[in-house]
Structure of Ribonuclease h protein:
Amino acid sequence: MKVMENGASNEWDIDKLGQWFLLDDKDAILGIPLSSTSTSDRLVWAENKSGKFTVKSAYTLVLDEQKGSGLGHCSNGMARRKLWKAIWKLHLLQKIKLFAWKAGRDILASKENLAKRKITPDGVCEFCGDAVETIGHTLWFCDHAKEVWRNSKFALPFEISATWKFLDVLKALLRCEHLRPRLLELFIATCWGIWKNRNELRAGGKGKAGRSILRNASLLVEEYRMFKI
Ligand SMILES: [Zn+2]
């Protein structure tokens, strides 16, 4: 399916994106810079580096899914399944849980992931220019994410290491749920807000202040509790 209009403007066809994709995915696509040369769209199989589909890579994917090995650094399959089960049971909107699933599988359209698929020439963060834009960098270490967490009233009961993946943090938070109820939901909703804001900024939008992202995340968690139970 061709969504890019290669004309004089070489821009995304926003109407077509709106027609075919969910709002969050549309925002993520709009955040992908287009090549200055007029190349045709092509289908890319995300499970191997060449981007080409092979039966072997599909087979490996199925085996990985069965073993649960796509779930970060958890210790065993059962623990990973338990973790996913807990995430899908959270009191959060479906789109936010879907975000957590994508972040956990490391399949969000971060610059790092786009560079791996050769969609962008490099994976450098366009906001700070300081690091590879991994999902963790965007959500916790980049300047605009730091501003959010600085303004946050909830302190995490541990420090997130630069090597941690999204699932590592969720796993650590699950262990602390008894200390602070709803911490996991609030954390995921805040990460979702940061990611959404990152996509808006990359699409040329103004973006939101850290406080506004936090307020919105907190409202989303509270409102879901109030109206869905
Ligand atoms: Zn950055």
About this structure: Residues 183-202 form the longest helix (20 residues). The longest strand covers residues 4-5.
